[in-house]
Amino acid sequence: MGEAGCRMATHLYEDLKRDGESLLDEFSFVGVDTKESDLKAITSKEGFTQITLDPPEEFWENDRESFSYLSSDYELSRSGGATRQRSIARYYIDNKENYVSLYQSLENVFAEFESNDGGSLTDPDIGGANVWLLNSLGGGTGSGAFPLITSILYNVSRARNYKYYLCGIGSLPRLDSLEHRGLPPQANADFYGNAYAALRELAVLIDYNFHEEYQDAAGIDSNKAIRLESEPKRQSELDLPDSAFDFYGLIGANESEMSVSYRDEMNQISANTIRFFAQAVGLEDFPDDRNKPGSEDVLFSLDSTSVRVPMDEVDEYIEVVEAINEIEAELSDVKDRIQRTRRNRDYINGALDIDLRDVDLEELGHVDPEFIRTAKDRTRSIEVASISNPDVLDEEFENYVMNQTPAISDEYDVEKSDVVGLIFYQSLRNRMEDLITNDQSAQDLQEAWTDYSVEIGSFRDEVVDTAELESSSTLRKWEDGLAPFFTGWKKSLQNSLEQIPSYRVLERRNTREDLQKVENLYRNLESAYAQHRTLVNAQNVVTSRLNTQRSNLKSARKEYESQIEEFTSERETLIERQQQRENELQTKEYTLSHTDHERYMSVELRNFETIDEEFLDEMESFSNLIVRNAVSKETVALAIEKQLDELHEPIQDITPYVVSESSYEILGALVDEENRGLLEGELADVSASDVSDALSSFNEVEYSEAFQDPFSIRFVGCYTDVFIENTSEFGTIHDFYTDPDKDVGDLFGLDTTDDDFIADRIAYPELFPEDERIQTYRDPISADD
Questions:
Q1: In a 3-state reduction of DSSP, which class is residue 608?
Q2: Is residue 442 a contact partner of residue 529, using CB atoms and an 8 Å limit?
Q3: Burial class (CB in 10 A: 0-12, 13-18, 19+), 660
Q4: CA angle 776, 781, 783 (to 5 degrees)
Q5: Tens digits of residue pLDDT in 505-558
Q6: Radius of gyration from C-alpha coordinates of the chain
Q7: Distance set, CA 497 to CA 293, 449, 517, 518, 522 (Å)
Q8: Dihedral over alpha carbons 246, 252, 256, 262 (to 10 degrees)
Q9: Domain locations in the chain?
Q10: Rounded to whole angstroms, how far apart are CA atoms 85 and 761?
Q11: Architecture of the 2-303+734-784 domain
């Protein structure tokens, strides 16, 4: 009920869920609140019934004037919420808009629970079900509505055909040593005024017997009922027994320390308590060994501690270890890739650096010498004429070079054809260079050029740039110089011969002889040109092939260098991630190896080199951890003893006690069957600790029968013979409230009357018919009469 109660219920829900869905199935959860946004934010869980009490605005204006617990000064927030006003929290239920639907919703919850119980409610070993009402006594909705919701739950449960035990846990805002603290509490004073009022109303609900000095705080003790001033058709009041609750526990919470972690600690107390009664003793027999005359024990204060293996943290530790292992594997892989890629690059560099004219086969490095031997052997046997034919050249390369050379070692990923091609075509090019260098035809053409270059422009209409041809190739000297020159010369001689008369026999004969010489020289030079051109063409083909192979290898080298850069960057990123993970691992290892001296203590682990997935699979209990040497027996023993010693009665703070009676201390131990021996003698040989002595300090020790968390031992301290008169929340405030010379507001640094601070917070004045201050405050006219 209310935000705090919903948080307590949700915490229990999550705690059960961690231990398995089957356990969660034994529970049913209901969240009731006056603010829909809070309710949805907290209780949006599968199987969690949400009941929102909408602002009852329709009859508000009339009801606040006529209802005994309301006042015309009150305001109803349209956005929902009781805003810490207890009477308004009651009105959220006691109105014509919400009451019937809430009552029916709760009836439906019981009916659904019974339909899903699988017959367990009739099991004699179970004997019924527990209904827990969780709320804060100092808040608004949970504090002000809980007496009325208690009455509804009592009446609904008693109308069912099965046995239900009505239990409650209230979070009590602590005011330790209020009268002597000097400064007002840091938290809002409304918490404490509401808590005082709620405690007085709770006292009526549980038939609490006040000490004689505080009898004026008592309420009605017979014919108890809560009026429904909205007068629903179903009933006008809800009857109550002497005690509506079979069990009611108080948890002391420091409102000035309400961080998420602290709130979780407090909520774990209620979760452990509920689980203890669900999985251990039945409420009908609690406490088992109690033999106290008079009324049954109903009011308890609650405390809880635990010793646990921090399994979530261990899982996280192993996740980090696995992440580091994965990074190391990735680093190893990227290192291999870098090394292999560098070898490929170095292989290509070695191939590109080969100069077949000056190569030492013994010092080649990466490239197989057989590539060079085979290429050279085949180069010498190829006919020059076939070199210019691409098809023939391809056949030579594939059939006689590639097929007759070994494969490149698996150490490399270099394309063999590019490397062998580079060597083969370089060898061919060298051969062609040698042939051209020693080519007689080229020499003949050059000699002709030397002889006739001065006359080269003869017989030509255009001007010939002899100097430009001088620096050009032999072929071009023939094509653009000598060939046109000899052609023109021949034509000139032919023309001269035709023009010489026949009777000039000698002149004609000389001219004919000159023509014959020129023609013979032309034919010889033309043949030399053709031969030289064959060599040059072959050389061009080979050079083109060689350049292609060289280009292919350079492209491959560029790709490898790019990969090396990429892989190196990847390695640096992995090293950075590895360092981060190793730092994280050190932090987690430190955390796991050092005890956190908190309410819920984690044991110190050791021998982290053994903690891995296999470790998790084999771990079954605390005892197994001890056997595996992941935790020492001394550590477990000292932790259990310390946590038992840490348990204490949490709400009685006034010293000396107003009601001086020692509380009756009952220890509830939630312990897995595998670990129970740790509390029953297995740790007796640990000299630094005495678990049995710590257990013997309790009047009773009750063990759970079905707790199945092998890595957690939880303790619940249930304290009865506790008296709210011994608490600042009730005792000190009541002393100030009833002393005419004191004002409660002084305790909180407030300038307010006691009636406004106390009487205004009593949301159920009908429970205190003999308290004139309350009755006068609520109905001054009737009180005067």
A1: helix
A2: no
A3: exposed
A4: 40
A5: 999 999 999 999 999 999 999 999 999 999 999 999 999 999 999 999 999 999
A6: 52
A7: 162, 26, 14, 14, 18
A8: -90
A9: 2-303+734-784
A10: 7
A11: 3-Layer(aba) Sandwich (3.40)
